[in-house]
TrEMBL record:
Residues 38-268 form the Peptidase M14 domain. The keyword Protease applies. Its cofactor is Zn(2+). Pfam families: Peptidase_M14 (PF00246). This is Peptidase M14 domain-containing protein. Residues 235-262 are annotated as: Disordered. It comes from the Bacteria. Keywords: Hydrolase, Metalloprotease, Protease, Zinc. The keyword Nucleus does not apply. Belongs to the peptidase M14 family.
Length: 497
């Protein structure tokens, strides 16, 4: 059963669908969330959550601070105590100018504060409504240090992403959702007299190291949400990126690890991204904020599902955390259209408001593996680079050993041929591709001070994503590591067998 089973069950979290039932809790938004026209500010959020806290049910904790010293708040709602075994983690506003997910979560807190009995006793619900308060206050995508947080899940160089992952490792959620927004009216669509059709979208984690049963269950939940959104009158689709049809490539979001959705997925959660569509060029981009929030709430309710769905997700998530590593690691993957299938994609005609179906063969929904390497048993980081890597290992919660004496071990070094900086227009590939060559398997001399990161640890998949030197995209395209990428020289991380 997918989350659609919720519709046939007891009315779990019914308040998420019925506006206007909240009572005495003073909130910085209207009782009917569908009438929202203004987003909640950081100060309003902090004051509201202080009022919403209820001993024994709603706790609000400061888990860290932003670059500019603002609070990173975690809200926990639990009325079942030890019976609440299904752990859920909803977080939003990694990008400061993407607001609907945050507003939807705050309306959820308000509704449940008024009716605690509507939260199932088996649900342990955690919320981080505003991960980027500095960006929110400045109404900008990046944080106070100018960093895009949703591209910082590999290095965890920013205090906001370090806090997020520290909380996630403590919670170990079975279900996680990352909240964002996208522009419906980008220049390429506007030039055709169109805008993107959906106002609410969702996709599941897709990194190759995530077990296939999690990815399959995630995509089933994405598909089964469609009738719920249709009933509410919200255009809905699987989240995709790219330009307008028929000429531009349209594909699901990146299969790389450096975002929240795939980052939580490799911790064993059934992980999703929700993106609501904003008309940035409109006179008032928040005129339809209430509709976007309503679309969010429908998806939150859908993913919480009924008891059978939650039990199934919990079992799959816990199975994923016990799953052995695969024998091979995919190092080069990309989206393709196997067989050249033609699909019709809807767009909205701005002048008439009509929905137009546009046929295209450029809808790429098949994930193809172009390269792979055998899975090692550990990674060795040379002593000269140890100081660079230790902060990343610590931020990721990884376990390692520092050699006190030299050691010999079978392994292979990896030579960097080149770091390709330009964006690849032909294959629609990101910049900073690492082109490498594996050296022959041999006995490696590992000097004292070498860091050994074993893959027999709980977070082995994260260790692979951070350290594997054969990945097409990895650490060496990032500040602080780029100077370690010397063409023709061995990379500082070796593969041990």
């Amino acid at each position: 059963m997918t989350g659609a089973g919720f519709l046939r069950s007891v009315p779990v979290l019914l308040l998420l669908a019925l506006p206007g039932l909240a009572g005495s809790l003073q909130a910085p938004f209207p009782k009917d969330h569908r009438t929202l026209r203004r987003t909640v500010t950081y100060g309003e959020m902090v004051a509201f959550l202080e009022r919403a806290a209820k001993p024994g049910f709603i706790t609000v904790s400061e888990e860290g601070q932003s670059t500019q010293g603002r609070k990173l708040l975690l809200v926990r709602l639990n009325r079942g105590g030890a019976k609440a075994r299904f752990r859920v983690f909803f977080y939003a506003q990694q990008h400061g100018d993407e607001v609907a997910g945050k507003d939807a979560l705050l309306t959820l807190v308000r509704d449940l504060a008024e009716r605690p009995d509507l939260l199932p006793e088996d649900v342990d619900l955690y919320l981080m409504p505003m991960l980027n308060p500095d960006g929110a206050e400045a109404h900008q995508r990046v944080n106070g240090a100018g960093a895009d947080l949703n591209r910082d899940h590999l290095l965890l160089a920013q205090p906001e992403t370090r806090t997020l992952h520290r909380v996630a490792r403590r919670i170990r959620p079975h279900l996680a959702v990352d909240g964002h927004e996208f522009g419906r009216d980008g220049e390429s669509y506007t030039a055709k007299g169109w805008e993107a059709w959906p106002i609410i979208t969702m996709d599941a984690a897709n990194h190759p190291l995530i077990p296939p049963y999690l990815k399959t269950s995630g995509l089933a939940a994405v598909a089964s949400a469609a009738p719920l959104q249709e009933k509410a009158g919200h255009p809905y689709a699987r989240y995709s990126v790219g330009g307008p049809p028929p000429d531009e490539e349209i594909r699901p979001s990146t299969p790389e690890v450096d975002d929240g959705r795939n980052g939580m997925g490799t911790l064993g959660a059934l992980s999703f991204i929700i993106e609501a569509g904003v008309r940035h060029r409109a006179a008032d981009p928040q005129a339809d904020l209430g509709e976007r929030v309503d679309g969010y709430r429908i998806l939150y309710r859908h993913l919480l599902g009924d008891r059978a769905w939650r039990d199934r997700v919990r079992a799959l998530s816990e199975r994923a955390r016990r799953e052995p590593l695969p024998p091979f690691i995919a190092t080069n993957v990309f989206w393709a259209n196997l067989g050249g299938q033609t699909r019709s994609l809807p767009v909205r005609e701005v002048a008439t408001g009509r929905t137009v179906e546009v046929p295209t063969a450029n809808a790429m929904t098949d994930l193809v593996v172009k390269g792979s390497v055998p899975t090692p048993r550990a990674y060795a980081i040379e002593p000269a680079a140890a100081a660079r890597f230790i902060p990343v290992l610590e931020a990721q919660g990884l376990r390692w050993e520092t050699l006190a004496a030299p050691r010999r071990a079978p392994g292979e070094r990896v030579r960097l041929l080149r770091l390709e900086a330009p964006y690849d227009d032909l294959y629609q590939r990101y910049k900073d591709r690492q082109i490498v060559q594996r050296q022959s398997l041999s006995e490696l001399d590992l000097p004292a001070g070498t860091l050994i990161v074993p893959l027999d640890q709980d977070l082995a998949r994260r260790a692979i994503q951070v350290l594997e030197p054969c990945l097409l995209y990895g650490l060496y395209g990032y500040p602080g590591f780029r100077d370690l990428a010397v063409p023709g020289a061995d990379l500082p991380v070796s593969r041990l067998f």
